[in-house]
Design goal:
single chain; alpha+beta; Arc Repressor Mutant, subunit A; 2 domains; 3-stranded antiparallel beta sheet; two-stranded antiparallel ribbon; 36% helix; elongated; DNA-binding
Amino acid sequence: MGRAPCCDKANVKKGPWSPEEDTKLKGFIEKNGTGGNWIALPHKAGLKRCGKSCRLRWLNYLRPNLKHGEFSEEEDRIIYNLFAAIGSRWSIIASQLPGRTDNDIKNYWNTKLKKKLLGITSTSQRKAKPQQPYPDQHDLLFPSTHHQEIHLPTAVSQPFAPLIPDQHPLQHLPYQYHGTTESNGSMISFSIDQGCSSSDGNCTTTQLNYGNYGGVKDDRLIFSGGGFEIESTALEYSYEEEIKQFLISNTTVSPWIQSLNSISDHKNWKDHKGM
DNA sequence: AACATAAGCAACCGCTCCGTT
DNA sequence: CAACGGAGCGGTTGCTTATGT
């Protein structure tokens, strides 16, 4: 048995909203609130729209205090960091960016930020990574530091600034993981040896940095405020899925990530850390 | 100037989650 | 405990605008 549709598709308007519809919806919600029932709202407001459509229009466009226009570099960094930590959970990412909607961030990521991070220009879908990182890419991730040659295991990049320090919901949690490789406060640095090419003798080393504010929510350990930097002389430049593999694949990081994912509650986490 | 292509973004679709009955 | 139904979410679509040829 399939689900009943949320509204009568034959009798609802679809497509772009007119200014009149916007005015009706905004006026109604400002006067009456949503009433906790989006399905009933369009009828009450005199709109021939699906409740879901009204909700989306309100949340993404009409509600007060929405920010439109260019994203700041700080916002870029937050998005990068959270995407690296939790993936495409846009609503959670949006919750860290006051005035931005999940839809906004999703669109921004898909159309601009992803390409910026990966150094893909408008005319090429994929291209080899240059010898040096793109300046804007590096600056986004490490705004307050100058670039250094990384010779592992001694070099450790500077940590990220904390993620909205005074507002981070997990800020109060006492757990901080200190990696076995290198750590600096909340920052963990891993080195991944990608091996050397027999043909040209070039060796590839990847430095992966990961900030961690561990916490437990809904029986899952979650973490955010991280990010990654990849330094390599021979890596194929690739899409974010491939980059994310650095977080979960068979590298130095893998056991750590997997152990985090396997920890299901507060007590286990403390036990794991010997607390 | 006209057309083609790419980029940007609003909106829709279908799924999952979760509260209620 | 299962079924139902609404809210919310992420992926995708398709229209509009910008840019290139």
